[in-house]
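Contributing new records

If you add data, match the layout below exactly. Sequence lines come first and carry their own label; structure lines follow with theirs. Keep one chain per record. Anything else will be rejected by the validation script.
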Amino acid sequence: MIRRYLAELVGTFVIVFAPVALSATSTFHGGDSGLLAAALVSGLSVLAMVYTFGPISAAHFNPAVTLGFAVSKRFPWRFVAPYWAAQFSGAVLAAGLSALLFGAGHGVHIPASGPVLRNFGTEVTLGFILMLVIISVATDRRVSPPIPALAIGFTVVVGVLIGGPITGGSMNPARSFGPAVFAGGEALSTYWLYLFAPPLGAVIAAILYEAIRIERNDAIGAPQSLMEALK
């Protein structure tokens, strides 16, 4: 399991460092601070890490996704806490390195001013969509191997494009936590939204998908190798 935890840590490190570093370097000559750039860097880094570590840890990289898999019985509950620890550690290390290189305060997620219900609902919905895609492509043996990374990566792009102006389009409690630790202030005081909203959306999506899944004989774990080893 140590290798799986390390894969989750390194994968989360990369998907957090990429958008945070992009935010930091946008102040340099030739940098890009646009929403499209942020969405592409976020989604493509996820895509790359799913290809890299998917065969090892199933490439959760997101506490909300791990919770969704556990609720749907596609991931053992006993390993949820260690996966979370690895994911949050990777996020803090990524934000820490970015702070060391470029200064703290970059890539933070702070909800836009306005109704709390709108902000919370946005993250719940985006977390729901992301988990719905992930559980559908990652837990069905009939899905061709190249498909999950592409589907998940581009879903992240869509989520950031939609949620960017409102909440930053987090969909991931670890992604928001790392930068908030070093930024402090409002980023930490509003972090509760990112801690609770994406997991709620992920749990709803996981339960819904399992309810409407038809070919249950083709359902697999995330990762399947771990589920088989525990039998």
